[in-house]
């Protein structure tokens, strides 16, 4: 059986040890790189089962105080292999580290200063991030970026904080988790000095246009984080995602926010990653198991998970 596997370097058509030419694109529009609907057993896919990685979850937040153990068990039962915990600021840090300590090798902490926490006091917040990076190893630097949805008062400070944390990521060879809200052009302009410097990461909670996605991916080294917004009927994201190859996608929930339909408006949790996977399976016309396998490979490569 022939199939195309999206991996870090190139798609290949595999059957035994043979490599065949690519199949033509599916009817209904081209993709950035081609996909097929069929699966094969391979060394890359065979040992992952139905596992998935929630690459962005604030499951350490107070919304989970009453049932965090149950929420983690539901995630495990749903096939969630790992949960990555992005930081917000000095207030969120102790809660995040406590959850990681309670679930070692399952929850992995990232460290960073969220753009909405950038204010007059951002220097001391950045100093804490720097001290933490010196104190121990983190899986990524994030959540960092530029957010102009709520307020534009500290735009220049947000850019400074964003770029300083990018520099630390390059020094330590860590991926970055980037938050963009109402700030696509500002974010891409702030990233430009670091193009072709080896920076890697994810554009978290991608909701942009196909043109924006293409610009993000041309930067190199980045994935697009897809969450429950893809299930929202009027969001228009599903149509955009259908034109982006799966090799560029990783899954996330952004718990406790952005619950997928039919849980929209309620607390989100990592177990709901299965709903996002099923929606992507519908979009791509392939199995949700295959979605899980490929996005897991993408996440493992990006975050250097074994």
Outline the structure in words.
This protein is α/β, with parallel strands linked by helices. 34% of the residues lie in helices and 15% in strands. It contains nine helices and eleven strands. The strands form three sheets. Strands 7-8-9-10-11 form a five-stranded parallel sheet, sandwiched between helices. It has a three-stranded antiparallel sheet with strand order 1-2-3, with no helix packed on it. It has a three-stranded parallel sheet with strand order 4-5-6. Strand 10 (222-226), helix 7 and strand 11 form a beta-alpha-beta unit. The longest helix has 18 residues, at 155-172.
CATH topology: TIM Barrel
Task: Estimate percent helicity.
Answer: 25-40%
* Beta fraction: 15-25%
- Give me the count of strands: 11
Main sheet overview: 5 strands, parallel
Q: Mean pLDDT, nearest integer?
A: 87
Under the CATH scheme, the architecture is Alpha-Beta Barrel
The overall number of domains is: 1
CATH class: Alpha Beta
User: Ends: how far apart?
Assistant: 28 Å
Structural class: alpha/beta
Could you tell me the radius of gyration in angstroms? Answer: 19 Å
Q: Number of helical segments?
A: 9
Write down the overall geometry.
globular
Output the strand order for the largest sheet.
7-8-9-10-11
For the record, what is the CATH homologous superfamily label? Metal-dependent hydrolases
**Helix and strand sequence:** EEEEHEHEHEHEHEHEHEHH
Low-confidence stretches at least 5 residues in length (pLDDT < 50)? Answer: 1-49
Topology:
Blueprint (H helix, E strand, L loop, with lengths): L3 E2 L6 E4 L2 E3 L31 E3 L13 H10 L2 E6 L7 H10 L4 E3 L12 H14 L5 E7 L7 H18 L3 E6 L2 H8 L9 E4 L5 H10 L2 E5 L10 H5 L7 E3 L21 H12 L3 H16 L3
Parallel strand pairs: 4-5, 5-6, 7-8, 8-9, 9-10, 10-11
Antiparallel strand pairs: 1-2, 2-3
């Amino acid at each position: 059986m022939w199939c195309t596997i999206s991996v870090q370097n190139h798609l290949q058509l595999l059957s035994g040890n043979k490599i065949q030419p690519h199949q033509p694109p599916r009817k209904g529009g081209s993709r950035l790189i081609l996909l097929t609907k069929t699966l094969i057993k391979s060394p890359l896919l065979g040992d992952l089962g139905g596992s998935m990685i929630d690459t962005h979850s604030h499951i350490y937040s107070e919304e989970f105080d009453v049932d965090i153990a149950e929420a983690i068990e539901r995630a495990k039962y749903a096939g969630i292999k790992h949960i990555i915990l992005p930081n917000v600021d000095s207030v969120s840090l102790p809660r995040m580290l406590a959850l990681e300590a309670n679930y070692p090798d399952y929850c992995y902490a990232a460290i960073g200063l969220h753009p909405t926490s950038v204010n007059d006091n951002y220097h001391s917040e950045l100093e804490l991030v720097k001290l933490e990076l010196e104190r121990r190893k983190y899986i990524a630097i994030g959540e960092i970026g530029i957010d102009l949805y709520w307020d534009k008062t500290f735009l220049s400070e947000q850019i400074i904080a964003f770029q300083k944390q990018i520099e630390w990521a390059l020094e330590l060879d860590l991926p970055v988790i980037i938050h963009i809200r109402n700030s696509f052009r500002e974010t891409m302009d702030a990233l430009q000095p670091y193009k072709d410097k080896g920076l890697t990461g994810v554009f978290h909670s991608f909701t942009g246009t196909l043109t924006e996605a293409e610009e993000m991916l041309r930067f190199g080294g980045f994935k697009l984080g897809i969450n429950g917004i893809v299930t929202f009927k009027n969001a228009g994201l599903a149509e955009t995602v259908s034109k982006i190859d799966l090799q560029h996608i990783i899954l996330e929930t952004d718990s406790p926010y952005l619950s997928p339909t039919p849980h929209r408006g309620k607390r989100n949790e990592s177990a709901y990653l299965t709903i996002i996977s099923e929606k992507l399976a519908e979009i791509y016309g392939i199995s949700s198991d295959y979605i899980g396998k490929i996005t897991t490979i993408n996440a493992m490569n990006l975050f250097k998970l074994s």
